[in-house]
Design goal:
It is a single chain. It is built from no helices and four strands. By secondary structure, the protein is mainly β. Strand 2 and strand 3 (about 40-45) form a beta hairpin. The termini are far apart.
């Protein structure tokens, strides 16, 4: 077995942000970032631990390249 078409990539720097969990549903929720106006969606699979409303969290925001939507 061998790797093909291998190339070096530049690591991307992803800034960490902070916010507060505002709403929790069955397997997802919404948080209010400290440095953004709009709440952000998150899925529990992206989180360590059990989320609760009012918890302070640290997170990264990524933009889906094909649609330019925040994730």
């Amino acid at each position: 077995t061998k790797a093909v078409q291998v190339r070096l990539t530049k690591p991307k720097s992803i800034e960490r942000e902070f916010g507060i969990i505002r709403n929790v549903k069955e397997d997802f929720g919404f948080l209010s970032p400290l440095n953004r106006q709009d709440d952000l969606y998150f899925h529990f699979s992206e989180m360590e631990g059990e989320p609760r409303v009012g918890d302070e969290v640290e997170f990264s925001v990524i933009t889906e390249t094909s649609t330019k939507r925040l994730q």
